Amino acid sequence: MESAVDTEDPGKGAMRHIIICQEQALAVWGRLQLSDDGPVLFLVDARSLQRKLSRAGYHALSGDLWDERIYQRAHISANDDVLIQVHDPQLAEHIVRLLWRQPRHPAIAVITENGFHPTFPPPVKHISVRQLVSKAAQVELRRAHNHLRVQQLQATLADIEKLLILVQHDPDPDAIASALALRTILGRNKTTAPIGSFGQVTRPENVAMITLLEIDIEHLTRDKLDQYDGIALVDVQPPYFKDIALPRVDAVIDHHPQVASYPARYRDIRTSFGATSTIFVQYLQAIGAKITQRLATALYYGIKTDTLFLGRETTEADVEAFTYLYPLANHSLIRRMERPKLPLRDLDAFGYALRARTIIDAIFFTHLGLVEREDVLPQFAEFCLQVENIEWSVVSGIFGGNLIVSVRNSGHVKSAGEMVRHAFGHLGSAGGHRSMAKAVIPLAVLEQQFGRLSDAQLGQFIQEQVMQSLGVPTAV
After folding, report:
1. Could you report the per-residue pLDDT of 383-404, keeping only the tens digit for each?
2. Cβ count near 468 (within 10 Å)
3. Which domains does the chain have, with CATH numbers?
């Protein structure tokens, strides 16, 4: 049964994938994605199967799988990894024993039939066929589902000549990256699908991002909306813009919780995801789109910042997207984005915030008063959460005629998004995730209900609202 086709001794430096299988098992290997870091060699028990594999471009040896000579001919060494799928459990154990007798044995995994519980040395791993096929099926079904979603999205927006891709007032990397990805999926450019915001990018890291990646974000006014034939929202939803009264919204793609009902021709809300960028990575993968280094860098940075380097509210989908993007992204540019120059005025704001702090029952409160940039508030909220024994940080300030409240928590307590909606939703825009949230309250609304409030009174008001929402007793 031995074949005349043989392989050369690869030497100590070459790492190969050795697949030991029988004809009936070959279909399973078509579902596997083997790594590209080494050649593949099949060891099979039939000459006909060896010829079939050779015609398909694989190296293959055929012979008696019970006979150790076939493994000697393959020159299997500790540099290789070995995957075994045979239908006879005794044969599987026999092959493992043969390979294990070598002074420096290879890494071994056995594809086992359902109900077969092998007795192998602990370093030998086994994988159930059911698990193998199930995982592969799940991946393909997910891609099929996302492909259909992309087709629906493209069809929804196909008739729009000039599309506005709208992001929040001070867009973060996740929103900016998602907007770029949507433009790519639609096959548009910045003329037919500009990115717009009613605010400006203010946080130094985000300014560095749009500068280094040469991303244009148009500053909008309500009157400018008439220039567009349609609107797509990414990383944000229509209730956020309730003071602007958006016209018809054509598409909404976001990972934040939906806090109110609204009409939209297309909607994809995935609250379990840590970033909207993850949704777009799945879209791009589903349609086999080419992801440029610029887009990969933006999406990678978007996931990294929104999940705090996969340390906050992260799902398997986020990890998979992050891993997929890693080799495609420009990490030199990302390092430059992450280390922008810190204005001295920010240090002054931080110093004032520390002096103005109040800590009540593991809640860190501080009100900064009037701030020059809104992003100072979430930055400091993240910093305050690092204080010993603190479970909540609530940092507030006045920016653009609004009272802004930025909230962070340790992640294992009550949802921050639910808390701010309960505390401030009746006064303005409020919402977020389990571990981070934000409220934006027009000062005019506060003055109408409570009269003009000083900074001290605003700080006290925020403390009372938060503590009441969390069920923490307030001092009489």
Report:
1. 888 888 899 999 999 988 999 9
2. 13
3. 17-123 (3.40.50.720), 141-338 (3.90.1640.10), 344-470 (3.10.310.30)
pLDDT digits 0-9 by tens, 217-249? 999 998 899 999 999 999 999 999 988 889 889
Q: How many CA atoms lie within 13 A of 395 on its CB side?
A: 27
86, two tokens: 């045979």
First to last CA, the chain: 91
> Cα(120)–Cα(69) distance, rounded to whole angstroms?
22
Strands 107-112 and 81-85: parallel
Question: What are the pLDDT digits (tens) for 305-332?
Answer: 988 767 666 788 999 999 999 999 999 9
CA distances from 13 to 41, 103, 459, 472, 476 (A): 16, 17, 66, 64, 75
pTM of the predicted protein model:
0.62
Could you tell me which residues come within 8 angstroms of residue 101 by beta carbon, excluding any fewer than 6 positions away?
A: none
Euclidean distance between CA atoms 368 and 351, whole angstroms: 10
Both tokens of 431, joined, read: 């919402």
Burial of 460 (0-12, 13-18, 19+ CB in 10 A): middle
Q: Quick one: DSSP state of residue 258?
A: P
C-alpha–C-alpha distance, residues 37 and 50, integer Å: 23
